[in-house]
Structures are given as C-alpha cells and as structure tokens.
Amino acid sequence: MDPEQVKIPAVVRDRVALLRKEIIRHAYLYYVNDSPEIPDYEYDALFSELKSLEDAYPDLIVPNSPTQTVGGAISSSFEPVVHGMPMMSLDNVFSEEELREWMHRISRLDDEVTGSLLVVEPKIDGVAISLLYRDGVLVQAATRGDGITGEDVTANVRTISVIPWYITDRCLEGKVPAYLEVRGEIYMSISSFEQLNKVQIEKGLKTYANPRNFAAGSLRQKDARITATRPLLFWAYQIGSASDEVTHNIRSQTEALQYMSDCGFPVNPEIRTVRNIQEAVDRCVDLQKCRHDLPYEIDGAVIKIDDFDLQQRLGSTSHAPRWAIAYKFPPEEKVTKLIAIEVSIGRTGRATPYAVLDPVTVGGSTVSMATLHNEDQVRLKDVRPSDMVIVRKAGDVIPEIVGHIPESRPVDSQPWKFPDRCPSCGGPLIRLAGESDTYCITIDCPAQKIQRIVHYASRVAMDIEGLGEKRVDWLVSAGLVNDLGDLYSLDRDRLVAMSGLGDLSVSNLFHALDESRQRPLYRLLVGLGIRHLGPAGARAIAREFGHLDAIMNADFNELSVVEGVGSVIAQSIQQFFAAEANRRVIDNLRKAGINFGDVVIGGVQGGRDGGGMQSGGRDGGGMLAAGMEDMSDQGLLPIALTGGEAGAGAVQTLVGKSIVVTGTIEGLTREEAEEAIRERGGKAVGSVSKKTWVVVVGRDPGVTKLHKAEELGIPQIDAAGFKDLLETGQLPD
Q: Is the C-alpha dihedral spanning 119, 125, 127, 131 positive or negative?
C-alpha cells in the first residue's frame, strides 16, 4: 500500500504532538535553565517513544521535531555562535541487545563495519563544549545550544585551568594547526561537588542538585570571575572541524584522541579501542560496574566507529551520527532493610511518608531514607517495617522504594498505618475524598509556618510587598513572627535594630502591611491557604457570605451549594475553621484590623438577605465592586465575572490544577479537551507526575500513563466524569 494512503489514527497524531511538546519543554529546562524536572532516563523514554512512532508513521516526521534537531534552545544572555560543523546529539540504546542491533543495522549499510575497530568512551555527565583555536590560540568557546547555534562562553572557559589557552608544539612534529576545533565535556568532580554542598549546609544555605547542573550554571555566569571560583574540569573527546595539516594526518578516533593529548588537552584514561561488538559490550559492562569508583559522574558509555573514512560513509541523520551510539546505564537498584516508616510535613502541610533504611550505597551515594510518596503507595507496595526492600536511584532523583522481597518478611509483620496526628504539631492529619495526599491543616504547624506566611503575603493573596521567603524565614527564626497576626504587631524600632534594614525598607514594609488590612475578603480567604480553595472559589464564597464570620459559622450544606464550590471545598473549609489553632490566628487577624468583609445586615452576616440576593451595602455587589481593581491587576476579572460554558468566559473551576488526558474523549479531539481544561484555569500536561491532580481516561488510553497514575495513587475519571469536572471543578465522591 502507498504510505500516503495509510490512515494515521488520531490518537497517534495526538500522542506525537504531545510528546514533541513535552520533549521540547524538558530540553529547554535542561539545556537553558539547567534545572531539569525529570531524570535523564524518563526524558530518554519520551524521546524513544516519539522516535518509534515516527518510524512507524514516517508521514508524521516534520523538520522541527526533536528527533530531527539537536540539543535545546540557546540563552539570550550570551552572544550566539554558529558552529562550523553541527554539534549533533547521539541516539541512545538501553540494553546489550539494542547495542548489538545498532551494530547489525549499520553493518547492513557498509560491509566494512563488521571488521572495524570500535572506541568505547565513558559518557561524562557534563556540559558539551566546542573550543576553537586559530594558530594555536583559543579564540572561542561555545556551548552546544541547538546543535547549529551555541552560546559564546569564551571568557568563562578561559578560567578553567585544565583547558589550554595555547596549543603546545608537541603535536604533528611541532606544527601548530592554523585551525582546530576540539570538542569535549566540562564537568565537576564528585569530591568537589560534595565539598561545595558541605559548605552550603554549614552556611545554612540550599544545597545544589547535582554536579552536571552546577557545572552548567557555573559555565553560564555573566561574570567570569564567578566561574573562576568554581572547580570545573574538562575531557576532550572529539576533533570537530580542522585545517588540512590535521585532517590529512589523523584518520581515526584513536589517532585523534592521541593528537589531542599531545596538544595538551585532558583525554579520559578510561577510553578503550576494541576489536568487535562483543569487546565493546564487555567494556560497557565493566564501566557500569565501576562507574561509582570513578571520581566523576558517568551515565553510560559512547561507542564509536574508529575509522574516519567509514564514519563519513555511514553519515548521519538530521539528529545524530550513524557511526556512534550512547549506551545508557539503567537506574541502579539495591536491597536493604526498611527499619521504619515515618512521616514528614512539607511547608504546604503535605504529609509524606518516607522509609528509614539500613544505609546502602545506591547510585554512588549512601542512601538511608527513601520517599514512599503517599498513603496509597505504601498500601500498593505493601512495604512494612523490617521488610527487605528494593531501593532505586537514578542520577539526582530522590531514592524510592520499588517493592519488598516477600520471602524475607517476618511472620509477625503487620501492615503500616498512616498516622492521624501531625508529628510536628500534634494537630489532625486530613485526607479529603478523592485526594491521594494527606495534609496537616493546622495553620501554626512549625513545619509549614514559613511557607504559609509567604503565601499569605503573595500577590495572589494579601500582596504584601517586601515579605519574600528569605525575609519571612528571618522574621520567624528571630522570634518576631509566630503566626499571620504577628505581622501586624511588629515593632518598628526593634525590627530596625535586629535586622539591619534601613529606615526606607522598614517604612515600605509597614506601609505594605497597612495597605493589606483593607484587601477584599476573597484575598484573605486565599491568603489563609485553605486546601482546594483557590481565587475563583474564594470569590464565590466571599460574594455569597460577605463576611468571614458567616463563612466560619456556615454548615456544610450552605457552603457546598455555592456555585463553583461543591462538597470537596466545603469539607475543606469546615475542617480548616474547626481547628482551634486556626481560629486563634483568625482572632489575631481580627485584632489587627484586617478586613473580614461586610457588616452584619438584618441579622445575617455578609449580605445574605434571606432571598440569596447579594447585599452588604456596597452598591449591590457586596465585596465584588471593591475587589474589581485588584482582580483586574491579577488578570482574573474577565473570566471570573462573565461565566459561560467555554471560551474566554468559562468559569474558572480548575485554577492551578494539573490534569492529564489520555485516550480519546468522545465528542472531543485531544486539543479540544486540553483547551477546555486551560479555559477553566487548569494546566493540561502531557505526563503523569506527583503534581498531577487527576488523569482523564478516554478510549484506548496510554498504558504507561495509567500505570504511573496507579503507582502514584492519582485519581482517574472517565469521559462522563470529565464533563462534570469541567462544570464543578470537583472530583467525584
């Protein structure tokens, strides 16, 4: 059949579009921001799936697909550099079988491949760099960028002591090349990285995630003097473009490595030239076994055809050379004893169970704790104290428990039960219907105090300029602020004396605090941080009840019938105000003169006149008119007020919610379903993670997404449930 006559299923087109979007986003985070959200093996899995679909349906291939391009976007902070020869990425394999298949595939392209030498190199987990020398002098250093255009980081690279500014005269019988491009990897040793984090801990500062990201961030400093303080290193692994005296005399990768070493470039001593694919496989296995004995991080091995003429004949795709492949190491797993299961409280109140382990070395570091995500995950994996468990770690990913070994379980073992009291404050731990996570709802819980105050002061809440996380952290640590009400009883003179802040900074802070006293009621509700109650729900509640006291005294039925609220939010509001500690904070805010809403009218708080009409004495709109200007500043006004079923007027029922759609939803294309989510303030995301609120499951869903959702305990709803979700913003009970 003519390929153009093959009908491509809509679900395949949708999946390809989604994969491209996600891969591009993650590539940007990795290459430009140096802050990846997912580990390499998850990114590789997305890329591999996209490539498989494009191989199966070639008509779907487009020039700007990630499979046809290289690297990521370039930062606008540096001058662009066009590479003389593209800096291509490498295709990946993940098993010995796939490595042999690569060799078999390229052998069919050229008979000489079978008898050719291969070079096996450690795949350094660092930052690719191109070094350009003219007449032996380093004149330019550039990052990979998108493979065609990189970033000019010459000044920063010149601060790296192991990279020569001048090429020595030991190469090619003393002849310094007129033009030479050396490519390699900038990295940081594990010991240097650990020492840096040790200093950060001693200073009470945030630690760095991993050596690769820190090296990339160091390389992209605008001030080269900062880069000079960072212990960066370099391995040379390839000659790019070069003048004739180089290209005519060097005809293999082995010779190129020796030449670069003669020129004064560091060349990795673990590189081996082998005779066949079996020896290449054996060397990959050896590298995997000793990877954590090396003083730097590697995440795989690179296998290259040694002969340059053969490389040239094999050529490249638009994305990667055919003559080289990256063999990626799998996530490492070890077995150890689970000593206890405990619960930590995050700054938002989320209670996360974690395993206390008999220390074991995994992924090159000692692991004594591992996340268990949530209550459902503990039950699903059925892990218990005293179990022997399998621990996994890949790169900088937090260690996790894969499962337990049944035959080693003690006969008197009992299932672990999630506690009902917060280990930090002793308050209740609450899990709402349809939720996978459990939360401490006590507002003055020490474990979440700082972040609650930061949220209260944020732009979407009380908008208190000058109360960022660092300042709040200091105020709490200094004992000046214990809860939200304390913000309004700060002593100006004491604050100046203790903080060292200038009079102007303190005056600005007190002015911002005074202004916040008159914020609309809905902003106060948002600032209190009630679980599930976002700006849209807060506005609806404020309009309906008009006063905080009326909301606090309302029963479940009164709250749940408010349009856009429903049972989940109603339950959360009731539980929040039922906590004695929360009521104490409310009393402190009352004493501070915070606007709680409209006055009592006719015995009913907040403008309910018996017939449900809005009242409250502010031109018939209760708090609505007073809040319009602030709402407009936040970009919330048009959607919140116009209502409607779709488009710009859709009611914001899904504000801040991350939702994954998998499969085909009857009557909607994938794009239409995702647009419906976005129109209501939600986030339509392509992959399931712990941040996902719900997964919408249509016809022919993705198995991987369903498995991930089950693994993380994330709720799933069908097409009918999706329609209700769009209307109510609530999960089914």
A: negative
CATH number for the domain formed by residue range(s) 446-637: 1.10.150.20
CATH number for domain 88-328, candidates 3.30.470.30, 3.30.70.100, 3.40.50.300, 3.40.50.1460: 3.30.470.30
Distance CA 610, CA 74 (A): 61
Q: What is the mean pLDDT of residues 212-235?
A: 85
Residue 640 near residue 631, CB atoms below 8 Å:
yes
Angle, CA of 672, 673 and 677, to the nearest 5°? 110
pLDDT per residue over 237-283, tens digit each? Answer: 999 999 988 888 899 999 999 999 988 899 999 999 999 999 999 99
Tokens of 25: 């986003």
Sign of CA dihedral 56, 58, 60, 64: positive
Active site residues: 123
Torsion of CA 365, 367, 372, 373, to 10 degrees: -40
Closest CA to 402 of 375, 367, 377: 377
For residues 138 and 158, the answer to whether their CB atoms sit within 8 Å is: yes
Whether the CB-CB separation of 537 and 523 falls below 8 Å is answered with no
Distance in angstroms (rounded) separating the CA atoms of residues 421 and 430: 9
pLDDT the model gives residue 618: 28
Rounded to whole angstroms, how far apart are CA atoms 211 and 365? 13
Q: What is the fold of 3-68?
A: Helix Hairpins (1.10.287)
Using a cut of 0.85, tell me whether the model's pTM lies above it. Answer: no
Of 263-277, 402-416, 456-470, which one has max mean pLDDT? 263-277
Pairing of strands 324-328, 332-345: unpaired
Report CA Rg, the chain. 30
